[in-house]
């Protein structure tokens, strides 16, 4: 083993340990910054030495841009669903049935029922080899690459683990992450997820694992399958699995009486409000595996387990008024104000109505008493109307036809649930919303300007469009209320510093609909300059990885609107970056060689391979000629490229050979 390889392996082990401390044990021993530095160091070593690539390296948790077509995989042992009930009496019946069937003492392991999407994880020799969704119970989708990006799932086990095992559990999205992701989605004009369960399931099925890596997913495991388990007791096996590195809920309890079981149900019926994620019930399993075996299965469910589901908590309250909020993209969102009412431990004053269709389907009238339910969302939602309490003569709620902020006539595009105010250049919340997005941390990161400052700048006529920010001076700012010279100086300096922000973030900061951080990155690396991007047709935009027709059309429309063209021209004059910077080279091993790439690859996206080649001095070209040194050939390569390469006698190499070529020449 070379010293570089040893260094890489040591870093991987160390980072795996820190990941486990952070995501599973919740007790990090180093700062985030130290972690990031080590990760960057490993990334750099791996880039410079691609021959040591490993799919289970901690760097792979960032995902890749490869498109996945999920392969269907059969489960070794079917993933059966549990029988379930909303009725406490049926849990007592389950106890009685178990007692009769076993006719000997037994224990019941009570566990929280996590509200996410079920997953099966297979490990061989301590390495994660496969992750499969429940699917229909017999067959599921192979989502291994996406699952690798979930940081609480160990890629390598530690301690005294069995050589081969399967873990089952639930992939969930905790509340904090769910709120954040919905804010981001609303921010770029995407429909928010209805609840954390949908968000988790949807994220797991994304085609692009790099996007999955950005979703705040977590995974809690609750069942161990293996030929040589450490114990006959399920609960002890969970403890063992915790020691191997899995995230196991600390809230399971072994009960020996019906009274204990009922206490567990009643405790969590209220206590669940304080959990950072959703649970929708309690699962009861016979604790002894040999007893489980004796009890066996029915056609659909195991006889040795049952789940109790909580009824969603609801409250009734009179509707006071509906606010119509206008967002940055112009979308108009109705929010109901209700008489304050107690629901699941909090006082509810506002409830979500989502859109005009929901209002219509509820047949909501003025002064109605509404039924409010709380899911994972911070803002509860209205699920029904209490018709019996409807006052005589009340009229149906009508969605406004005009913008409540600027009076423009609202429009609704085909296939969209939301109404939009089209007056983007003259509607206050849209203008200030765009400015707030522009200066935000993930965009231009001008942290000396907050929301209040934006509102003040707009109100005082100093800024009415993004480019106006760049003509602000300390003198212009000083007359503003409560503006000290020092803050004015900070603002001007912050704006000046934003001139160094790279193209991809400038593109994101513009606030083009459907263009989030990832999409902006893709567009910036595929088109390199704003000019190339503006020249591209919708079809050409769609040719970039993961750009759908909706996004492509939105980018095309944005870059062809006269207002936006003027805005971008002004920003160019201010000195913002509208072109991608050249990649820095780490070696010149490939100097003088030209490469053509085609098809898809197992471990890297085309963009990643291109970047690798360029970093080592090679040149990427788009078409094959007699001068081409190598054709990097992946799966589904175009037949014409292959033919041409064969005719000209160009050497074809695969992904592994490419990595070797970079590595060997070192
Ligand atoms: Zn408006």
Mean pLDDT: 89
Tell me which ligands are bound.
zinc ion
**Number of domain units:** 6
* CATH homologous superfamily title of the largest domain: DNA ligase/mRNA capping enzyme
CATH class descriptor of the largest domain: Alpha Beta
- Going by helix content, strand content and strand pairing, the class is alpha+beta
Distance between the termini: 16 Å
Assembly state (oligomeric): single chain
Bin the strand percentage: 15-25%
Write up what this structure looks like:
The chain has six domains: 60 residues, Helix Hairpins (Orthogonal Bundle), CATH 1.10.287; 238 residues, 2-Layer Sandwich (D-amino Acid Aminotransferase, Chain A, domain 1); 76 residues, Nucleic acid-binding proteins (OB fold (Dihydrolipoamide Acetyltransferase, E2P), Beta Barrel); 73 residues, DNA polymerase, domain 1 (Orthogonal Bundle), CATH 1.10.150; 72 residues, 5' to 3' exonuclease, C-terminal subdomain (DNA polymerase, domain 1, Orthogonal Bundle); 71 residues, Rossmann fold (3-Layer(aba) Sandwich), CATH 3.40.50.10190. Helices cover 37% and strands 18% of the residues. The chain has 24 helices and 21 strands. The longest helix is centred in the N-terminal third of the chain and has 22 residues. The protein starts with a helix and ends with a helix. The mean pLDDT is 89. Zinc ion binds next to loops.
Pick out its properties.
666 residues; alpha+beta; D-amino Acid Aminotransferase, Chain A, domain 1; OB fold (Dihydrolipoamide Acetyltransferase, E2P); six-stranded antiparallel β-sheet; binds zinc ion
């Amino acid at each position: 083993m070379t010293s570089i390889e040893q260094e890489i392996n040591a870093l991987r082990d160390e980072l795996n340990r820190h990941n486990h401390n952070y995501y599973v044990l919740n007790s990090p021993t180093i700062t985030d910054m130290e972690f990031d530095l080590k990760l960057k160091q490993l990334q750099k070593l791996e880039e410079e030495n691609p021959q040591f690539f490993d799919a289970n390296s901690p760097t792979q948790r960032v995902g890749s841009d490869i498109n996945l077509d999920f392969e269907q995989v059969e489960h070794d042992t079917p993933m059966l669903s549990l029988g379930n009930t909303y009725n406490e009496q049926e849990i007592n019946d389950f106890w009685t049935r178990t007692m009769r069937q076993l006719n000997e003492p037994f224990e019941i392991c009570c566990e929280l029922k996590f509200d996410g999407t079920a997953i099966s994880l297979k490990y061989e020799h301590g390495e994660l080899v496969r992750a499969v969704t429940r699917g229909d119970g017999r067959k599921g989708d192979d989502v291994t690459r996406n699952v690798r990006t979930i940081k609480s799932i160990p890629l390598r086990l530690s301690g005294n683990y069995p050589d081969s095992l399967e873990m089952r559990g639930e992939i969930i999205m905790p509340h904090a992450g769910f709120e954040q992701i919905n804010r981001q989605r609303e921010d770029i004009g995407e429909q928010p997820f209805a609840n954390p369960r949908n968000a988790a399931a949807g994220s797991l099925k994304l085609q692009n694992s790099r996007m999955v890596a950005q979703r705040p997913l977590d995974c809690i495991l609750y069942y161990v399958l293996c030929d040589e388990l450490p114990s006959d007791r399920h609960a002890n096996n969970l403890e063992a699995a915790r020691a191997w590195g899995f995230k196991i809920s600390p809230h399971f309890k072994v009960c020996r009486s019906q009274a204990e079981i009922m206490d567990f149900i009643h405790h969590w019926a209220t206590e669940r409000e304080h959990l950072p994620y959703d649970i929708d019930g309690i699962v009861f399993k016979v604790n002894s595996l040999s007893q489980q075996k004796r009890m066996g299965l029915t056609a659909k469910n195991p006889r040795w387990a049952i789940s109790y589901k909580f009824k969603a908590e609801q409250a009734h309250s009179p509707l006071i008024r509906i606010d119509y909020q206008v967002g940055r993209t112009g979308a108009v969102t109705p929010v109901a104000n209700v008489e304050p009412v107690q629901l699941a431990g909090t006082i509810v004053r506002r409830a979500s109505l989502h859109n005009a269709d929901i209002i219509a389907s509820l047949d909501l009238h003025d002064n109605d008493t509404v039924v409010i339910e709380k899911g994972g969302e911070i803002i509860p939602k209205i699920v029904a109307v209490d018709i019996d309490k409807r006052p005589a003569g009340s009229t149906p709620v009508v969605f406004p036809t005009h913008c409540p902020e600027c009076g423009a006539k609202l429009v609704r595009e085909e296939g969209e649930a939301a109404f939009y105010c089209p007056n983007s250049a003259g509607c206050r919340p849209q203008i200030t919303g765009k400015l707030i997005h522009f200066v935000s941390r993930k965009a231009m990161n001008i942290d000396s300007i907050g929301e209040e400052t934006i509102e003040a700048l707009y109100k005082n006529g100093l800024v009415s469009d993004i480019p106006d920010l760049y003509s602000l001076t300390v003198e212009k700012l000083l007359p503003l209320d409560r503006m000290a010279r020092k803050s004015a100086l900070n603002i001007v300096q912050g704006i000046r510093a934003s001139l160094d922000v790279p193209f991809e973030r400038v593109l994101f900061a513009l606030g083009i609909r459907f263009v989030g951080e990832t999409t902006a990155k893709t567009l910036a690396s595929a088109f390199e300059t704003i000019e190339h991007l503006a020249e591209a047709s919708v079809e050409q935009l769609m040719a970039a990885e993961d750009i759908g027709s909706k996004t492509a059309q939105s980018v095309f429309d944005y870059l062809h609107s006269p207002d936006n063209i003027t805005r971008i021209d002004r920003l160019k004059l201010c000195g913002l970056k509208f072109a991608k910077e050249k990649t820095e080279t780490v070696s010149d091993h490939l100097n003088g060689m030209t490469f053509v790439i085609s098809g898809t690859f197992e471990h890297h996206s085309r963009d990643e391979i291109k970047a690798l080649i360029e970093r080592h001095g090679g040149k990427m070209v788009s078409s094959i000629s007699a001068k081409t040194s190598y054709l990097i050939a992946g799966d589904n390569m175009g037949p014409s490229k292959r033919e041409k390469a064969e005719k000209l006698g160009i050497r074809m190499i695969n992904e592994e050979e490419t990595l070797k070529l970079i590595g060997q020449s070192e």
